[in-house]
Design a protein that fits this description.
348 residues, Phage tail proteins - horseshoe like beta roll fold, 5 helices, Phage tail protein beta-alpha-beta fold, mainly beta, single chain, three-stranded mixed beta sheet, 4 domains
Length: 348
Amino acid sequence: MLKIKINGRNYYNFNNVNLDLRYDSLASTFSFDGYFDPDNIEHRKLFRPLSYHSIQIWEENVLLISGYILSHKFSASSKNNLVPVSGYAKTGILGDISIPTSLYPLETNKKNLKEITERLIEPFGIGLVIDSDVEEDALKLYDKSNSDGKDTIGGYISELACQRNIIVTHTPAGNLRFTRPQKVGAAVAIYDENMPSIQMDIEFNGQGLHSHLTVLRQGTVGSDIEADVDSVNPMVLQYRPLVKEQTKGAAGDADKAAKNALSDELKNIVLTIETDRWTWNNDRAQIVMRPNNYITVSSPKCFLSTPSNWFVQSVVLSESSEGRKAVMTCVMPESFNDDSPKSVFDND
């Protein structure tokens, strides 16, 4: 059963809940319709606009999101006193705000990602969680890091993290998290196109994909040099080369930058699965769907005749008077795990 707490107090009169839980994002988002009685003093406190009340949304005893209410839409012509309410996880504020002048100067020397991040997020009551797989990279020193003052805090942190191939995301409790997917993850569920109440779609955006990706250090593009192709996509059968210039990171980071560029391109292959339940399809305990998991998919109609593993990038959970629905957005594992891509097609 779904539960909502606003400022630590249970709130029961809601409908049309929508949760967009994302892996590679500063913040997941939520929305719902809440019953508002303008003559009720407690309701006026809970629904007061621009109060940025804290909110937690639970499924049974599983915390799904902890964040802030951002927006309300009131209408004098409302017949049922339902008010659309929406917001995001606590870390979402980092994408909206600049570095305050109290934290100037903007340039830091010989600091690591952990030190820089903790200093920037501390005024906003946000904690930092660093997964063991990325801790070594999070503690590497930057010779110099500098914001131009126009960056949001979240954008600046993400830019620095990208140089270390670290994913910036968030925990259900609303803390910032540095992570990286497992290279090989066991599938938590199996999905087949013939299963009841399952809809599968896959989209290939060929314009956004290239056969060969080369990344050159800044200042070498157009010069008389010989450069090896750093990344190759075996699924792209037409010769479609792309050369990019490395503008961030150290001199030896071109290979890593090329892998990152190819990983980003692979997100142009998107598998979507819609189902009528919020739990994984497996034979084990019924666990609520979450991003950052692997699933096994088989669908000849989607050109996936051979079962293949997919990484769940986001999950949208919705509940209304008509029932529940979950929509998973999945990408190839190599979109995140730094491996060379393998074709998902049969050899035909």
